[in-house]
Design a protein that fits this description.
It is a single chain. This protein is mainly beta and 346 residues long. It has one domain. The protein is 10% helix and 48% strand. The strands form three sheets. Strands 1, 2, 3, 4, 5, 8, 9, 10, 14, 15, 17, 18, 20 and 21 form a 14-stranded mixed beta sheet that branches.
């Protein structure tokens, strides 16, 4: 399952069909940078139960803030060149209804919860360490609600004759926006990918390392937009680079980091801004989530109302047409980055 999308016990996840996918993700998604044991061994039933218990006990570390508690306002000025592109769109293709939004809410399914994961256990014969790499993969059902304050109006069905004898009827819309008060709903069904490493210490399985980030793809990795990198700029001009793939100098989400000393760390009272986002989408909505609040990309995220601990800072990247066209399901990619907040010292 994907524990990083558990929302304080409110939002539950459904089972991803087939353990084969999880086994594939374990090798393909988190192979880079993980500590590979020298020898393999067959875990006992007690080990399997202990591993499950350790993951369950630490599931609070794997949550994200994508599911808002209620409809939350958005900036009505669309980012980048979207405004110009949108007006060209409605004049160039009037067979699609379009809207302008000023509110947004993710509503994830709360009806089911089942722990489902695969793991690879191993023994380092040199260090005498017993570790377990856990891959968590899950489908996430739900919907996205958007409040439209302007929309193009349906005018009539346009009849199109396709030779030799086919007739199409397509809805035809106005080429200007009219004021409205409408909630538009889009289906959300995506795949979440996460991982961690457990270590057996004095006979007890304990969380040891976390992946540099979890990923949420809607509808799936093959069809969702692509994020490559972004920067987190904080106080004192500190800049942390978050990459899809890690290197020797920079942080990457496809690598495991020590829970005690490897995570990106800030202090209570610090702040960050997301900059230099690199993706494969030019026109897009980008939102930052932290501690049950959504921020515009340009906003400053302040760590002044939290206690010390491990939290998720999430970045969501949504192709702009998804949030201006009436038809179609939701499409997006989100990264959830674990960060450690320590007591304020400045």
């Amino acid at each position: 399952m994907s524990l990083w999308c558990v929302q304080g016990g409110r939002h539950r996840l459904r089972k991803l069909a087939g353990a084969a996918l999880c086994a594939l993700l374990a090798a393909a998604i988190f192979g880079c940078g993980r500590t590979a044991p020298e020898g393999m061994w067959e875990p006992t039933k007690d080990d399997t139960a202990g591993i499950k218990a350790a993951v369950e006990a630490n599931k609070g570390y794997f949550k994200t803030g994508l599911a808002e508690l209620a409809m939350q306002m958005c900036d009505t000025a669309l980012p980048g060149t979207t405004r110009t592109v949108l007006y060209n769109e409605i004049r160039g293709n009037r067979f699609k209804g379009r809207f302008r939004l000023d509110g947004l809410q993710h509503a994830l399914d709360t009806t089911a919860y089942e722990l489902k994961y695969t793991f690879i256990a191993g023994l380092d014969t040199l260090k005498q360490e017993t570790t377990c790499t856990v891959t968590l993969a899950e489908t996430i059902p739900g919907k996205v609600l958007m409040h439209a304050w302007k929309k193009t109006n349906y005018l009539y069905d346009s009849v199109i004759i396709v030779p030799p004898a086919e007739t199409l009827r397509l809805p035809f819309y106005s080429d200007t926006f009219a004021s409205c008060d409408t909630v538009i709903e889009k289906k959300l069904s995506g795949a979440s990918i996460e991982g961690c490493v457990l270590k057996k210490t004095d006979g007890v399985w304990q969380l040891w390392k976390m992946a540099g980030g979890g990923r949420f793809y809607v509808p799936g990795p093959e069809d969702a937009p692509y994020i490559l990198r972004f920067f987190l700029k904080s106080r004192d001009n500190r800049v942390d680079t978050v990459n899809l793939r890690p290197d020797t100098l920079h942080y990457g989400i496809q690598r495991f980091f020590s829970l005690d000393s490897g995570l990106l760390t800030y202090s209570v009272g610090d702040w960050v801004q997301v900059t230099n986002l690199l993706t494969n989408q030019g026109d897009a909505y980008d939102y930052v989530y932290f501690n049950d609040r959504r921020y515009e990309l340009r906003d400053t995220v302040k760590f002044d109302s939290v206690s010390p601990g491990v939290y998720r800072l999430s970045l969501e990247h949504i192709p702009a047409p998804v949030l201006w066209e009436n038809e179609g399901d939701f499409n997006a990619t989100a990264w959830g980055i674990p960060i450690r907040i320590k007591g304020g010292g400045r």
